[in-house]
Amino acid sequence: MIDTGSTGFMLVCAMLVLLMTPGLAFFYGGLSRRKNVVNTMVMVFGVLGIVGVVWVVCGWSFAYGGDGSLPFFGGFDQIGCLSAVNDMVAEAEGTPDAFAVLSGQGALANDPELAAGYPAIIDIVFQMAFAMITCAIITGAVAGRMKFGAVCAFVAVWVVVVYAPLAHMVWGGDGSLIGDMIGALDFAGGDVVHISSGLTGLILCLMLGRRKGFAVLSYRPHNVPFVALGAALLWFGWFGFNAGSEFAADGVAGLALLNTVAASAAGVLSWMLTERITVGKCTLVGAATGLVAGLVVITPAAGFVEPWAAIVMGLIVSPIVYWAISQAKRRLGYDDALDAFGCHCVGGIVGGILTGLFCVPGLSWTEHGGLLYTGDWSLLGAQVLGILVTIAFVAIADVVLGLIIKACFAGSLRVSAEDEAAGLDVAVHGESAYPAYLGLD
Question: What GO cellular component is one of the record's annotations (predicted)?
Fold first, then answer.
């Protein structure tokens, strides 16, 4: 039967995750240059429109449809989400209750006989919100220089041919490649959301090339309060992101919530300490970035680890992400404009590996617990292998897809040099975030 408590819980969590993508628009908008803030934010809103439609049409079915027999792909049986609506009709007519179409996460996926159920239609929108924020993260890497049409085309195809199959490989239940065959754990999206989006951002920025003046000009956030507002919205929405990935209003959801707060708090403190040691000052942008890094690192482990371990994970991740953003990017020469790769991919990899160390055996979805508890390297090995498979699949698919989209846009993903110099807000969108500043009012 349908449990109203879990149904209400999942509705709230879905709405919280939906809040994250507009929140990311503020976060990215504040980090961008003044002349590109509208373009940066409209790319995120474009993702809302594209993914919202594509997910209903086929994304949900490709990710979580089928009978679970395929390791890489769901199926075609839930195209247009018709089956979920039919289940609701059957429910209203008094035939057997409809339960959520589960994605392999949490208590419901592990033992549906013992867990409370909720309508499948809620899971569709919950997972849609995950797909939205994942695609939106990618746009940060290409801010200020990628054609808006190319961004839209790339996202529309990427969510179908990369995100949906990867979600199935990790969360597709029995028979899925990463989650079942390899046995890797990903509670709420370390592989599916953060590694995939950050790595895609890196590949796109390498294909685009550097912004004009990269490593010469100083690219500073144009609106620090926007950054703080965006980080706050992300933080709040992330509670639904992680706690909701338990798919039930139970103790594990509470643990995931507590761990999310603990890791993000530790990430803030660790980043501020790192900044104080390296540059002598603590910044608001740094604190906001540390908050996000802490959220990223705990995502794959939120329902698997004890709160003390969540704090340790937050303390560990910020110096690593700080180094990736401040040192590795400069030394390797890639221009990840708003640090999608440095924060999300690097932080997601750290979180996935640490899950293999700190996972409490009784909370694991597999028979293996973390190395710290069991002395068994099996889970840690599965975590590393799952990450490597994710990286290989995403990288190959991104390169192929990027080349196809590039060919469709006259052989270039990049705006003209003139538009880039003038700023994409006025050149591409015909509007400015600050008309008075440009003398346009």
Answer: plasma membrane
